Here is the input.
Amino acid sequence: MESTIQVKQLCKSYNGLSAVQDVSFSVCRGEVFGLLGANGAGKSTTLECILGTKKADSGAISILGMHSKKDRKKLFDRVGVQFQEANYQDKMTVIELCEATKSLYKQTADETALLKQFGLIDKVKSPVSELSGGQKQRLFIVLALIPNPEVVFLDELTTGLDAKARRDVWKCLSALKSQGMTIILTSHFMDEVEALCDRITILRRGKSVFSGTVKEAIAASPFEKFEDAYLWYTEEEEDDR
Here is the structure.
């Protein structure tokens, strides 16, 4: 299958402390790929290096066949990004925020169609501050899709949402996958990972400790449930693996 993202032997340190060490993986076109690990495992640093917002110390990274750092301007219109720490002016209405985002790109998707697709068309004139948690998260997906990207990065998208809101977001992501979108996500919810991800990489202390499918992760562990297997892979204390 065609690779959309290639990461080879990525290393990044801060003040002499290693944050990411020799991490390698690839993401295929039309795939939902999960980058997993405990807090501080190196997920955010890995994503930032992939996106070119931080410079890797060593290693090779490409997105859509381009260099993530040197070709950032070219990639800007082809990659959508949503981060957990996204901050927007609450007094702005939904449609104002969409239009402001749209102005940043040369060619864009139809924001009205996206708002309909994600069940927000009746909220176009509502201030962002009046949206529920689930509605805000769906809006963040819409904003990430406005540039009509080939690849979308989603960071902890369902954190803080109730069960129904999380399921609604899952449906949105499944619809994107069915349209051939490549999605890279981080999540601390293992049921979410099982429901959405075709393949995963698990990080521990900045190193990759597993790459493959959820079923393969379970099979290579002493456990039958993925959540138990995940905790085994990410355990901070040394074990006998």
